[in-house]
Amino acid sequence: MLKRFGSIRNLILLSTLAVTVVGLVMSYFLATVIEQRAQVQRSDQKMVFLASDIKATLKRSHSLLDLSSIAQANEDTFGILVRRESKPYFVSAPKFPSGREISITANEGSYRITIYTVVGSLSSVSTEITVVSAVLALLIILAGLLTGTLLTRSLRGPIDEVVDAAEKIASGDLSARISPDGPEEIAKLAKAFDFMAQHLEESEATKRRFLSDLAHEIATPLNSISGFALALSDGTISDSKEREEVVAIIEMETKRVKSLLEDLRNLDTLDMLYRKTTEEIHVRAYLEELALRLKPQSSEKRATVKVEGSSKITITTDKHLLDMVMQNFLTNAIRYIGSKEGVILLYVQERSHSEVVIGVNDNGIGIGSEHLPLIFDRLYRVDSGRDRQSGGSGLGLSLAQRAALNLGGKVEVTSKVGEGSDFRLVLPKEVGFKKRRSDSKSEAHS
């Protein structure tokens, strides 16, 4: 219903009118009560004075005659009843209009005096007060109208600015911002809007950069494959040894494209789905299994993989996502172990009564401090040339971090060039999945 009134000014005027009407009605009844109490108090005072006059009269010898004179003088206002020894002695009972009766009693010797009257309607008095209230109500309405007008004018500019900025963002101009000037509430709105716009702009820039890098990552091996395939087909490369080398390169580049596509599938799964499968995992046994699975790769790099930690530590989590993180950590440790004989340590330890740390420590080439804040960005490589040769897609750590977040955990890393790296997955002992809004809605409908 309130939407029909449209502007803030009209809503303020409506609320002012409602408050004024309620106040007017309340003031009418309140004034009536106050005036009735004042009239009762005045009548009580007069009846007390009249009772004292009757007491003095009863002491005289011609008291009945004097009582008649007193009753006649007050016949329009008060009724008088005098009893002597419980028998009526004098009665004056005028007819009063309808109303609330009030009375007082007094004793004088053997006499008992009762004086009464009626408090009638106070419409005339209340009307006068209501007129005053109506004038005040009119002033309140004018004040509300003025307030609504000033408020509307003060808000119209900032609101128009918000609407204009929103329309620009909707049309694709993500650089639109709002001036933080104005009332405190408008400043808060502007700050929240600018934060949203900045986040959208950064997300759009990240998406474009990601698509550009992805196109480059796919184009490089495809160009290599197509070029060598053409050379093989047209006979440019005829030597058998060269042909074997070219076939090996084509096979390596094909594997690299497959690895990139597989990582993209995993990335899409983490972006869109929320896994709920949990099981109890003995962490040390899991790490020993992981080391055994990747033994061919570690043996090829002449790296020794060791496992440390208590066999009693268990967690309840999603093994698929856990594998996505830890296999990435171990694969990177093997890949960048360097030319020296490498040692890789898989370990597990309790950080607190509710958290477990699962780590991969190596003595490989390490990562420079300038690269550490960026290694979890999609397609970021510390050394892109070496990573292309090793077959990495540049998506692994981004996947690992997202998987850790979906498990309710986090990833920590320390590294030093020439000394090695330590990647740690910190998880709750009981899984704490990061829910998405879309999932909670679908569950509510199911």
Task: Describe what you observe in this structure.
A hairpin with a 2-residue loop joins strand 3 and strand 4. Helix 3 packs parallel to helix 4. The two termini are 33 Å apart. Strands 6-8-9-11-10 form a five-stranded mixed beta sheet. The protein has a four-stranded antiparallel beta sheet with strand order 2-1-4-3, covered by helices on one side. The protein has three domains: 123 residues, no CATH class; 99 residues, Helix Hairpins; 163 residues, Heat Shock Protein 90 (2-Layer Sandwich), CATH 3.30.565.10. Helices cover 57% and strands 17% of the residues. The protein is an alpha+beta fold and 446 residues long.
Q: Mind telling me which CATH architecture of the largest domain this is? A: 2-Layer Sandwich
* Strand coverage percent: 15-25%
Q: Looking across the biggest beta sheet, what order are the strands in? A: 6-8-9-11-10
Query: What is the tally of beta strands?
Result: 11
What is the fold-level CATH name, i.e. the topology of the largest domain? Heat Shock Protein 90
Pattern of helices and strands: HHEEEEHHHEHHEEHEEHHEEH
The biggest beta sheet, please? 5 strands, mixed
Fourth CATH level, the homologous superfamily of the largest domain: Histidine kinase-like ATPase, C-terminal domain
Please give the share of residues in helix: 55-70%
- Give me the number of helical elements: 11
Low-confidence stretches: 1-5, 384-393, 433-446
Alpha-carbon Rg, integer: 47 Å
- By CATH reckoning, the class of the largest domain would read Alpha Beta
The total domain count is: 3
| Mean pLDDT over all positions | 77
Structural class: alpha+beta
